[in-house]
Target: Dipeptide/oligopeptide/nickel ABC transporter ATP-binding protein
Amino acid sequence: MSKPLLHVNELEKVFSSRSMFRKKQVHAVQDVSFTLEAGEVLAIVGESGSGKSTVARMLTNLIPATSGDIVYNGESLRTNRQLRKKLPTFVQMIFQDPFAALNPHHTIGYIIGRPLQVHRLTQGDLRSRVLELLRKVGLSPEEDFIDKYPYQLSGGQKQRVVIAKVLGLAPKVIIADEPTSMLDVSIGIDIMNLLLDLKEKENLALMMITHNLGSARYMADRIAVMYAGRVMEYGPAEELIQNPQHPYTKLLLYSSPDPWREQTEVFEVVEAQVQDASGACCSFHNRCPFATDICRTKPVAIAQLENGHQVRCHLYA
Ligand SMILES: Nc1ncnc2c1ncn2[C@@H]1O[C@H](COP(=O)(O)OP(=O)(O)OP(=O)(O)O)[C@@H](O)[C@H]1O
Model:
């Protein structure tokens, strides 16, 4: 069997801090596993603090994992130093704030061209490579943009520059962390369409991080729903949206406004603090209207449903 482009296996991240009197640990990510292939889009959805960005930061080696493994094309990030060195040409990240991502003192040409010089990726004329990248992200006429400064561009244009800069390194995986959340809705849709288009043309694997199930549905082939550091539900995007199983996924779906959806289920979540993902019980039990004793006392394993649909809930154990 061929190796997946990206294989994430039982990833865990614990942040530790020490104050004068006690040591505190936050289980930010626990037992996260998935695969990602070229040409595929995986969306990671969850509320603030669910661990989405921590997963992304581990995948790009910005922070080390506490345990578990990240394997690119069969090479482990944990053990392979060569892979860590060449990682920027394998995986790149787009952040939500294009305003902060671009140095205001440099021209667009410099911003896009500099990583190509650093990683020695230009054969031939740097300027024509930058113009080609500007064309790829729809900033034309390219000659008009190359000598501009970030302040002369709109938010959507800035995000396109960020994408061009990332694209220059010819990564195989792009992780987009809320790439449209700071943009107007229509501009955000343009950016999502651009990413989908580039995914097809460049045969990229895309991982999209979002709070919004609507954007996840629009973009993704598969969706992973995270809560308190764990994947609660995972499956083909349309199946997960049409046939959600986990109470938390239902909560996310029924709390997002959708004038076209018939409200078939009334879902009243219990108000409570989000639990840490240390795993002694179901982390959603204190907010779940269906929780029983077992949810408060026993850890939950992932249950396999049909069509690759998985759910982490005692209701299905
Ligand atoms: N450097 C850190 N030190 C300690 N705790 C951290 C650190 N970074 C993240 N955390 C904690 O880890 C948990 C997950 O955070 P993370 O930023 O991954 O969530 P998120 O789902 O990406 O949230 P958001 O959507 O708001 O970006 C949170 O409880 C957060 O407070």
